Amino acid sequence: VTAFEKNSTYNQTNVIPLGANLDEVMVSGIYPNPVQSDFVMSVDSRKNTELDIKIYDVVGKLVKSFQRNSNIGVQQMSFSVPELPSGSYLIEVRSADTQVITQQKLLKVD
């Protein structure tokens, strides 16, 4: 972001999205949230990579996991979780080198 001042000077600031590994993958959203049975995750990949998606309950127990290949570009990844009981969950997305890309809350309703 570039800010121009009244005295003709300018300042530049780098904007880094929270929860994103800019060298590899950015997760821009999960919808719908709350979810009943299926949700979609928006992913922008800068390289082909494998993603490890894990869903944890409120006490930190792993309740569901997925593996997906992410190709270069923007894509919508669909996930199905009808078997999960209603409640709050944490979705964690890791890259192939096990770096955490993002952690986001998910609310499951019936």
In a nutshell, what does this entry contain?
This protein is mainly beta and 110 residues long. It is built from no helices and 9 strands.
Shape: globular
Strand fraction: over 45%
Q: What is the succession of H and E elements?
A: EEEEEEEEE
Largest sheet: 4 strands, antiparallel
Helix content: under 10%
What is the overall number of helices? 0
Gyration radius (Cα, Å) is 17 Å
Supply the helix-strand structural class.
Answer: mainly beta
Describe this structure in words.
With 110 residues, the protein is mainly beta. 0% of the residues lie in helices and 57% in strands. It contains no helices and nine strands. It has strands at residues 2-4, 10-12, 25-31, 38-45, 49-56, 62-70, 73-80, 87-94, 100-108. It is globular and about 60 Å long. Mean pLDDT is 84; it is low at 14-21.
List the helices and strands and how they pair.
Layout: E1 2-4, E2 10-12, E3 25-31, E4 38-45, E5 49-56, E6 62-70, E7 73-80, E8 87-94, E9 100-108
Antiparallel strand pairs: 1-2, 3-4, 4-7, 5-6, 5-8, 8-9
Keywords:
single chain; 110 residues; mainly beta; 4-stranded antiparallel beta sheet; 3-stranded antiparallel beta sheet; 9 strands; 0% helix; globular
